[in-house]
Amino acid sequence: MKTITLKKSLKRIPLLFTTCLALILSAQKRVEEFTISLPAKKLEKSYYTTLQLIDKRTDTASLGIVQQGLLNAKAKVIPTTSLSSQFQGVLNSINGGNAEGGTLVLYLKQLYFAEITARLSEHGYCYFQSYLFSKNEDGTFSLIDQTDTVIDHKANDVTRETLQKGSDMLIDFIRKNAAKKPEATHRYTYEQVKNFDNTAKESIPFYSISPLKDGVYKGYHSLQNQQPDKEISSVKFYGNAPKIVRIYETVDGKEKEIRKDDIYAVVYKGEPYIYLSIEKLFTKAEKRDQDYYFIGKMRSNSNAGSMMITGAAFFGAIGVLLMTNPAYPFEMKIDYFNGGFIPVKEIQNKNY
User: Is 79 domain-assigned?
Assistant: First the structure.
């Protein structure tokens, strides 16, 4: 009976994906405008009068998808004016008469809105991920702050309130940093700032050293710093597949199985294997173009945690498909910023 159900589910996948694409295409015909509300309160002291935007979002044409009307029609969120001019407008509005003439550079990785309808209410989300730099007198740049934030707002009609909360979050981020100078412990060139994803990875051992250190890593923080939490003595693979189903340590001269549930990843013979809870195993991650990619099934729930896991891809067609059929396999990559899993593309192989 389980085999029949699985086959039926797999047969429905192309239809589900087609439906998701249709939803996204219909959203392109509907628009929800977004404007950062200009703050009235001035800063007592600001060190900056110019804000430059480096927009590194995957989709620079929109800010996600929300729902409109009683039928929850999908609508693409579009900025009323360029984000660059809107962020500059925020800085202009919070500056008083004694602002100094410094320059801020906002490296924008993600800024997306999304909505999910539950039984009696709707959840609105805003995902904001960025770095903020200050320009030094010698023309170099120093990192002031970075953020990786998800807003989760619940309401009966959530769109307007979520857009406003997203606006407030952006204003607060600029406001708190316009009033401080960086500790110039590390200076970057403009080329390094312009490609800061690559620059940041160069300072992360997980991305910059080879081979990796064998062992158990309970969280992404220990993996990125290459500081294993526990040694492993041996592993058991799932047949000939690059998947580990059991891991062992040596205790008092005997091998003992290590529980997998509270582990983020293991490194075995210099190769990383990422734990996927839905499959209850570790799948091999391969480095490609300075990122780590792997194939696996993932489960996505309507909560802030899952939003951080799926990242920006959640808000596109892939994200809708994940919500519709959460056990379908995808190629994913590790978000070097927070260790989350970003869906890249669906896997067509039905034997997976």
Answer: yes
pLDDT tens for 140-153 read 999 999 999 988 88
Whether residue 253 lies inside any domain: the answer is: yes
**Which H or E run contains 111?**
strand 102-117
- Reduced to 3 states, what is the DSSP secondary structure of residue 27? helix
pTM of the model: 0.81
Q: What is the mean pLDDT of the chain?
A: 84
Burial class (CB in 10 A: 0-12, 13-18, 19+), 208: exposed
Evaluate the omega torsion of the peptide bond into residue 343 and state whether it is cis, within 30 degrees of 0: no
Tell me: do 300 and 173 sit in the same domain. Answer: no
Residues 172 and 222 in one domain: no
List 342's β-bridge partners, or say none. Answer: 333
For the chain, where are the alpha helices, taking DSSP H only?
Answer: 2-27, 83-94, 159-178, 190-194, 196-202, 205-208, 220-224, 304-310, 317-324
pLDDT at residue 350 greater than cutoff 80: no
How far CA 107 is from CA of 55, 90, 315, 331, in Å, comes to: 6, 16, 20, 26
SS (H, E, C) 4-22: HHHHHHHHHHHHHHHHHHH
Residues 218 and 195 in one domain: no
**Domain housing 162:** 29-200
Question: Do residues 210 and 194 share a domain?
Answer: no
Who contacts 135 (Cβ-Cβ below 8 Å, separation ≥6)? Answer: 102, 103, 104, 105, 141
